[in-house]
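Notebook entry, structure prediction.
Reason for the run: the old model in the group folder had no record of what sequence produced it. Starting over properly, with the input documented here first.
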Amino acid sequence: MPDEEQRCEDLYDDPETEERAQEVAIRRKQDLPPSMHKYWHARHDLFSRFSEGILLDEESWFSVTPEAVAYRLATQCACEVILDAFYGAGGNAIQFAMTCGHVVAIDIDPLKIALARNNAAIYGVEDRITFLCGDFCDFARARAGDTEDTDRWQSWHRRKIDVVFLSPPWGGVDYLNPALSSEQKDQEYTDIYPLSLLRPVGGRELFRLARTICDKIVFYLPRNVDLHEVDQLTSMFPNAHFGVQVEELWLGYKLKALAVYWSEAQGPCNA
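New structure, fully documented this time:
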């Protein structure tokens, strides 16, 4: 059985992976659980070109960033090279490819490569994205020289990256009810989302790892996130002078999420 690095490298030309992506893609409302039918009704908010062959597995239906929101983030993060640390089905990576010179997209799920590459091709930006299969935490450690496991990163762990974009898993559709988490059951203010619930290692560690890569970091976070915790992240780097900007991201009349921009320069990423 090939090791993980070889398996990830072979995914780009692996018919079985592409076939599997077609199998798991949900193309009809009735194939979604009833509790997720609202996402079907918003499918063209997720991808305006959905009807042209966009592929989403069940997880991607509730985790992908709506296109208008992704576009806003992309305009704020315009740069030469951006790292999308949790690209999923490619919603953010596609928009970044339209405003940045190149996108380095990382995801630990091999199937997401096939989904995201398909979706990027529909938007005509596949050639501006390098899809890497692996764990963002491992990428950051490889960049810091803490591991010899570097082959999978195609030398990107040694190249200049201008912005790190973090949109880690929030823990599923129940993120607005963090009291359902065992970590929160004994806490008083259970409607506030703590950074510790972010996958895979919590928001504090994700921020620390991102800071080892570059000094411009963007966090895409639940709208009910604990902003006091967010404010405390820079305390890990007492000698750095960060400018911080928090932006509410709306879709129509609904607040979808928050974006937090950190930079040792003033203003958003592209200032």
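Summary: The beta strands are 81-84, 102-107, 129-133, 163-166, 216-222, 243-251, 254-263.
The old model has been moved to the deprecated folder.
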